Amino acid sequence: MATRTATVASEVGLHARPAALFSRAAKETGLAVTLALGDGDPVDATSVLNVLTLGVGPGQRVTLAADGDGAEDALDRLAALLETA
Q: HPr domain location, by residue (predicted)?
């Protein structure tokens, strides 16, 4: 399983629009991607509701994980999205 950590750059954290953009990008990978805040339980990153329930604020670090063909590249793209959007 591939993992990445990223610091959320959005000044509103993963709320509404940033969460929707991230979840859509996670879904487009075609992989089972998870997202976790700190040492909390991971949630399905393709579900905007699950992402919103984490309550990720600006500047917080999250952990992404995925398994399967192309997981490394997919996580690189998703981490970059979180760190720049």
A: 1-85
Q: What is the pLDDT of residues 27-74, one digit of tens each?
A: 999 999 999 998 899 999 999 999 999 999 999 999 999 999 999 999
Annotated catalytic residue 15? yes
Amino acid at 18: P
pTM: 0.95
Element (H, E) at 6: strand 2-7
Q: Give how many domains the chain has, as a whole number.
A: 1
Please identify which of the residues 2, 3, 9, 15 carries the catalytic annotation.
15
Kindly give the pairing relationship between strand 2-7 and strand 34-37.
Answer: unpaired
